[in-house]
Here is the input.
Amino acid sequence: MRRLSVPLTALAAAAGLLAGCGGSTGSQATSKPANASASVTGTVNVFAAASLQKAFTKLGAQFEAAHPGTKVVFNFGPSSGLAQQIGQGAPADVFASASTKNMDQVVSGGEAAKPTNFVANRMQIAVPPKNPAGITTVADLAEKGVKVALCQAQVPCGATALKVFDKAKVTVTPVTQEVDVKATLSKVSLGEVDAGVVYVTDVLSAGDKVKGIAIPDDVNASTIYPIATLTGSKNAATAQAFVDYVLSPDGLAVLTAAGFAKP
Here is the structure.
């Protein structure tokens, strides 16, 4: 029996060594998931131009499906107003603007850095389905008695419409100037005006509520949409993941289907 005591002691020591090695390996294994857990989860607040509403709502749902445990909360509105809110400290994680000018404002204020231009949008004339005023050209918008709705001049859709009028060498006096493109389009769909100048994407998303009148390329104008995470984000990992999703082939496919073009 005494001969067995040595091997048993050795076995016990070996078992102790193996246990120690196992503990070390286990501790390294648990540290890796801990590092990886800076993962995509929680709420991300996205401030986005009103013209992105339909496409981004779809992208938000797809993003949440691809990343269980996330929630995308949108604040849609005029890019100029959203930039102002961000500058005043509104709790936002991502900004998608319909104008590089408004994004530059946010970047110069230190609220964002290194934005990416991801899509472009062109203008189109929107009229009620039966087009009672018989609008066919940009010049028709300048005719006496024609009621036109535009976005406010400081809003990207308003500023871009003014570029169209400048190129077409016409002076259009709107009967109303709305806070964003959705409000402008609403005036048309409700029949309160004879025409509005909005984005191609908004005419497309409105379906049969309005009719689109194309603007010739030589007088049309476009605007570029940049997107960026915000430096004050409380959920930077999820914010970046959402931006990456927008820029991915899946994200761009949704935007292209909505009528947006490459920048």
User: Anything to note?
Assistant: Confidence is low (pLDDT under 50) at residues 1-37. The chain is about 45% helix and 20% strand.
